[in-house]
Amino acid sequence: MVRKLDKTDEMPTTGHEWDGIREYDTPMPRWWVLTFYGTIVFSVIYMILFPAIPLINGATPGVLGYSTRAAVQEDIETFRQANADLDTRLVETELTEISADADLNRYAVAGGAAVFRTYCAQCHGAGAGGGVGYPNLVDDAWLWGGDIEAIHQTIAHGIRAESDPDTRFSQMPAFGDDYLSDEEIAQVVEHVLAISGQDHDADLATPGATVFADNCAACHGDQGEGMRDLGAPNLTDAIWLYGGDRDTLIQTVTYSRAGMMPPWTGRLTEAQIRQVSVYVHQLGGGE
Q: What pathway or pathways are given for this protein in its record (predicted)?
C-alpha cells in the first residue's frame, strides 16, 4: 500500500518524534511576529518618555517628566481650592452650630466619611462598630464623652499620646504587681460580674465589694458606673472594650489596659478634624 504524502511531510521538524507524532518547526504567523516587534518598540519609546527604569532612589524621570503622584497631588489641590470657602466656614463656625447649617453639615458629613474611611476604619471598622480594644462609635457608651466638642478633643489630641501635651490620659494600675493578691483579684472580679448582672460567685463577690471600694471606686465610682473625666468605663452595663467574661476581667485587673489613639492634629487639617468629628457625632451615638 502506498501512503499518500501530506503537504506537512515537506515541513521541517524539530527532530522530536514520539509514537509517530512529530513536532513541526513551522514559522509563526506574520501578524504575530509584527505585533511582538511592535511591543518591543513601544516599550523602548515608553521608557524614554515616562519614568520606567528603577534606580537606587526613584526611577528615570523620562523625557516628558510625567509623574502620577504629581498628577494626583494636582487633582487634590484643585479640589482643595474649590472647597476652600467651605473649609474656612467650617473652621470658623462653632462646633455646636455646624449641624444647624444644612449645607455646611452636609459638606462636613460627606468629607468626614472620606476621612474616616482613610484614617479611622482600620481600627474602628468600616461601619465604626469597633472591635476588641477599639471603641464602638455607633452606640451611646463613651469613655470620654460623646458630645461634638468631646469627640473633637479626642480626635485632635488622641488618647495616651506622649507626643501631644493635651492628650487624654488615664492610667489603670496593674493590680497584679504587688497591689492585690490573687485571692483579692478573684474577689473583685466576682464583684464586677455581680454589678454587671452576670453569673458570679456570691461568696467571693461579698468581700470583693470591699476590695472594689478600697481600690477601684475612686475611678469607677462607688457603684461602678464609671467617670468620664478620668476615662474610666462603666462596669454595670453590658458594653466591654476588652471583654467582660471572668477570664478577661482577671487579665484586665491583673495586668491593666492602656490602649492608645494617635493625635490627628498636624496629620489632618483643622477642617478635616471637624469633618470627621461631625461624621462620628451623627453616626447614632453622639450626644
A: Energy metabolism; oxidative phosphorylation
Q: For residue 219, say whether it is annotated as part of any ligand binding site.
A: yes
Domain that holds residue 188: 172-255
Residue 60 domain-assigned (yes or no):
yes
Residue 186 within a domain: yes
15 part of a folded domain: no
Q: What would you report as the CA-atom Rg of the chain, rounded to the nearest whole angstrom? A: 33
15-29, 97-111, 114-128: least confident range: 15-29
Instruction: Please give the pLDDT value at position 4.
Output: 47
Contact in structure between 246 and 259 (CB atoms under 8 Å): no
Taking Cα atoms as reference points, which of 171, 273, 283, 174 lies closest to residue 232? Answer: 171
Task: Give the list of residues 6+ apart from residue 249 with CB closer than 8 angstroms, or none.
Answer: 189, 192, 193, 243
Are 201 and 237 in the same domain? yes
Under DSSP, is residue 17 helix (H, G, I), strand (E, B) or coil?
A: strand
CA distance 189 to 191: 5
Which residue is listed with cell 518618555?
49
Do 211 and 247 have their domain in common?
A: yes
172 known ligand binder? yes
Domain assignment present for 2 = no
114's CB contacts (< 8 A; 6+ apart) are none
120 marked as binding residue: yes
The number of folded domains in the chain is 3
| Residue 260 is labelled as binding a ligand | no
Go through 85-110 and write b for each residue having 16 or more CB atoms within 10 A of its CB, e for each that does not: ebbebbeebebeebbeeeebbebbbe
Helix (H, G, I), strand (E, B) or coil at 54: strand
221 and 159 share one domain: no
Q: How much is the pLDDT for 9?
A: 61
47 labelled as ligand-binding? no
**123 annotated as a binding-site residue:** yes
